[in-house]
Request: fold
Amino acid sequence: MSRFAVVAFCVVFASSLLMGCGASDSSPEVNEQKILANLRLEIPQVRDADSLRIDSLKESQVDGFYQGELVVNNRNRVYVMIRKDESEALLLAGPPLDIGRTAEEMQASKEDQQRERADLLKNASQGMPALGPDEAPVTMLEFSDFQCPYCARATSMVEELHNRYPDQLRIVFMHFPLSSHEWARPAAVAAQCAARQSEDAFWTLHDFYFANQDVFTPKNVVPQSEEQLADATIDLQQWRACATDRQSDVHRSVVKQVNASLEAGKQAGVTGTPSFFVNGEKVQGARSVDALAQKIEAAAGN
Reply:
């Protein structure tokens, strides 16, 4: 290996993380051309990249290093640390981690994260379909995908919780259409378009999708949705424009809403569906009514 050694995908832990110098206002001067040439030589994945640059380079909290981002083809970013003598680079799976906090500081950080997540989810859930009273002391968010078989199985669990806590619990449906599910996104848009006019119409489609997952395709999910809404008290022409006219303002607004729900879920740590949050706290391993009920009653102070 050349003198410019590259250690790929290491996470650097150092006790000096809290002791280093503050970031300089100007970027450190390094021989970027030489560094990038060495990176191309050492890393097959970037060898043929159309563009490669180092961005946001600054003093690291780890003594003897700069830190920044390696930008590949103006899209992909990888954290990088460069030794000040330019002899070594470390590509990181993430930014350097703070492991110097006390128990009290960790608890305070955890509480801050929980508050930030609760605010994020509260904002993202505005205007989303819900069951239960607005003033309920407990709000449960369900991140779901209409094509997900596990989500279909969870509907009976959600219904039982709604019936068990009619006054204490508000259940909000959050769209999280997975990219691997071909008709989940058009279904999410169609259902949210229905919700714009009537939440009852939304729940009609909600139940229809989960009860008939095997029959839908990207091409037929919207026409079959329209047939299902024939008796709903909504303006079908308006719904159709919302669900199918990609140039319309209302369609774009609904797509933006679905995307916001998806992004909020990702930021809150959702990696699969269904995922549940009770008053902003993620419920791990929510496999039964009793597991969720325990969290709901604790949040309600029961």
